[in-house]
Known about the structure:
With about 300 residues, the chain is of the alpha+beta class. It is built from 13 helices and twelve strands. The strands form three sheets. Strands 4-11-6-9-12 form a five-stranded antiparallel β-sheet. Strands 5-10-7-8 form a four-stranded antiparallel β-sheet, with no helix packed on it. The protein has a three-stranded antiparallel β-sheet with strand order 1-2-3. A hairpin with a 2-residue loop joins strand 2 (about 15-20) and strand 3 (about 25-30).
Amino acid sequence: MSKKTQLNKNTKNNDSMEIIEHENQQYVTVTDYLVSNTLGFSTQISKNNNFQTHNHVNYEIFYVLSGEIYHTFNGNKELIKTGDCFLLSPNDRHSFKSITQSINRDIIISTELFKSILALFPHCNNSIKELTKKNHVKFSISEIMELENLVRSFSFENNINKKRCTCVSIVLKIFSKFFSNDSNDQINYKIPPIVKTIRDRLNSANFLKEGTSAVFKSLNYTHSYVCNTFKKHMNMTISEYINEIRITHIAYYLKTSDYSLSQIADMVGIETVSYMNKIFKKKFHITPTQYRRQEY
């Protein structure tokens, strides 16, 4: 069940901030026309999308936070799920049909802001072409949580200059994801393929549940070589990295679902709730139950 709680209403500025509750998670949605016109940036939450084919006058980014949606993009229909992110240009046409309880983050960016942020990247004109031709990337749960933390900072910030900095950070983070999928990615070029393989595997829920045993499947390297290489480039052991990813998934499930603690522990490959509580509290300094009850 979802519900809305209006936090603030200012009729003079025609703006309001609401919290949408969805499966025990609270998401910030802002309708602030004054800020939107000033910054060229706005964001809101949409749930159970069922929209006919339409397009926008500005650029739009949306990513799925929970559930499954049929998305038709320029005539091509596909099923999208948690983590799927799309970038739409003003001329793109799309529609939604929700098939489960779903929720997604919508971000509208003015053409002026869009181009000014892209100007921060080398070869700006080529960057625009690269972004608009890709249009689709997949965020991990960790990346979604980082974005949502930035959105909350933007929403609750009153200083317009700080808001401007935060909205630019949000867009840059999303743009960087599109560029990082390029095979010529300059950020990760020094990381050995074996380390990238391990990271990719552990960001998959299925591999994460299996734990360290999943890391070494079908790898033509010795156990010691894999462990030493990973620690050298990641500054942590594989076990430490697994726990970091598990904690991130735990936090996500606590905020986006009504799964019990034992169900969540099983989903991330932890044998006991007590051990899950221990590693979670070490990271967040509160228990999973306290984290679930905590309001933004």
